[in-house]
């Protein structure tokens, strides 16, 4: 059947129905279809710009604390995950994920604890609803001091 479209600016819509041996039918429609696309920039890049060991008194020195200062480019993240692995970055020792609120500029400090001295691979992932980006670093923790 052929009939006019409800849109006066478009061409007529054509529908055809054919019998199908399976007992059903196929419907073919020709016409116009419209949709919108939202382009999302996403988090483009993450950089660890500073690693600082937090000095603690001997009575507090159960864990070594390190602050990581992180920047990013693109959209603002809503969560951060830190994966601490062995020096080869193959065997994960701990994973910590936290929601974050970044309102203006993507510059944040992430504090993580290390139970014992050693060399660790750190992966810091910033993410939002549509993207994520990763930065990695190798860190040596020596009883409350890091290099």
UniProtKB/TrEMBL annotation:
**Segments forming domain PKAT KLD:** 71-121
Composition bias type Low complexity, residue spans: 1-12
Alphabetical list of Pfam families matching this protein: PKAT_KLD
Q: Which domain of life is it from?
A: Eukaryota
Q: Which GO terms describe its molecular function?
A: integrin binding
Kindly give the InterPro entries that the UniProt entry links to this protein: PKAT, PKAT_KLD
Give the UniProt entry's GO cellular component terms: plasma membrane
Q: Which GO biological process categories is it annotated with?
A: cell adhesion
Ranges where the record places region Disordered? 1-23
What is this protein's record name?
Answer: QNR71 protein
Q: Which organism is it from?
A: Sylvia atricapilla (blackcap)
Its gene name is: Qnr71
């Amino acid at each position: 059947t052929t009939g006019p479209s409800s849109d006066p600016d478009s061409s007529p819509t054509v529908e055809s129905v054919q019998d199908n041996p399976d007992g059903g039918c196929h419907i073919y429609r020709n016409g116009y279809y419209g949709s919108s696309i939202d382009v999302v920039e996403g988090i483009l890049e993450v950089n660890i710009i500073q690693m600082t060991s937090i000095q603690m008194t001997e009575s507090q020195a159960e864990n070594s604390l390190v602050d990581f200062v992180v920047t990013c480019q693109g959209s603002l993240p809503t969560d951060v995950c830190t994966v601490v692995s062995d020096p080869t970055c193959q065997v994960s020792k701990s994973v910590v994920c936290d929601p974050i609120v970044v309102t203006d500029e993507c510059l944040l400090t992430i504090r993580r604890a290390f139970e014992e001295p050693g060399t660790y691979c750190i992966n810091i992932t910033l993410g939002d609803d549509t993207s994520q980006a990763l930065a990695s670093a190798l860190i040596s923790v020596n009883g409350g001091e890091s290099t």
